[in-house]
Amino acid sequence: MKFFIDTANLDQIREAQGMGILDGVTTNPSLMAKEGIKGSEAIAQHYKTICEIVDGPVSAEVLGTSFEGIIEEGKKLAQIHKNIVVKVPMIKDGIKAIKWFTDNNIATNCTLVFSAGQAILAAKAGATYVSPFIGRIDDTNWDGLELIEQIVGIYNAQGFMTEVLAASIRSPLHIVKCAEAGADVCTCPLSSITGLLKHPLTDAGLQQFLKDAESMK
Ligand code: E4P
């Protein structure tokens, strides 16, 4: 399973990249706005900087919702860097645009996916990635991980090439469960990635080893 970081914060991207386990980055308009990025030039520059930090797919989301608007924006985003993946919302014009991008060799990430039916449509349009939001489903008292399992099962049964990119991750356990379910990619906040490091027995064991190592000097 590939690890993407789900942020537009450059320090966090650098930190995850420094761990040597990062395969890519996802952003969305909320994450970009949180970093205070404003205006098309600043947006393009920010994506360029991210692409210079991480040598892997970087999802950049379109802001428009009409077919023509998505195509126009997506073409400009794709020109910023070869690793840009155009992130498109799961709406009718979005699906139409994903098919257009597929036919024109532009990588896409179909976002805001909350059902298996939506994931089938994204795959039919040829999306490179489909992003089911598991944390937001959990927030509504449904099990987001069940959706990941269902989509992985359907894609395997049908031979769809679209990669399942588990999004809206809230915890290290989500990452483990996504790996178990066969997700191709997990996009996570830095805290969930570093949370994977933690175990009290590791801390206690290391303390003892360090103490014993000291006595050997
Ligand atoms: C990533 O592609 C999504 O935009 C993101 O994971 C959404 O996460 P959230 O539900 O924590 O906002």
Strand order of the largest sheet: 1-2-3-4-5-6-7-8
Helix proportion:
40-55%
Amount of beta strand? 15-25%
Number of DSSP strand runs: 8
- The outline comes out as globular
**Bound compounds:** erythose-4-phosphate
Total helix count?
11
* Class computed from helices, strands and strand pairing: alpha/beta
Radius of gyration: 19 Å
End-to-end gap: 42 Å
One letter per element, helices H and strands E, the order comes to: EHEHHEHEHEHEHHEHEHH
Please state the average pLDDT score: 98
Instruction: State the low-pLDDT regions, or none.
Output: none
Largest sheet: number of strands, sense, barrel closure: 8 strands, parallel, barrel
Condensed summary:
By secondary structure, the chain is α/β, with parallel strands linked by helices.
